[in-house]
Amino acid sequence: MTTHADIEQHPDLAEMRSRFERATATPRAQAVETLALLTGLYLAASPWIAGFSDLTSLAVCNLITGIAYAICMGGFGSAYERTHAMAWAACAIGAWTIISPWVVAGSVATTRTVVNNVIVGVVALLCGLAMAATNGQMSRGRLAR
Length: 145
Description:
With 145 residues, the protein is mainly alpha-helical. The protein is built from 6 helices and no strands. Helix 2 runs antiparallel to helix 3, helix 2 runs antiparallel to helix 6 and helix 3 runs antiparallel to helix 5. The longest helix has 29 residues. It is elongated.
């Protein structure tokens, strides 16, 4: 009868965790995570900050996507090894934020909503791409040690 070693003790797993810790410890990764978290919180609150909370469908859309984005991008620092793939979901949320004033039900494409959502969506998309690039640099071994 054979016994198998616990996967937690595997040397490759320890090395991979070490790389993930180095990736999230860089100032660049921490800055991107902070900016992304603030972007998600602003997106959630933007209908009330920018003054279009009376457009209920877009206000609810921004609230939900902002919370989802903040949760999605907020987990990188503490659990990067389990959340790095969510960077692509964050990119999708950023793209959705850009097009949502024209897609959401009702006539919500006002100057205020379009400018707000395009700027926030571009920042969200860029933060998602930056986190996805961190993952790509890590897998190619180009991350600064």
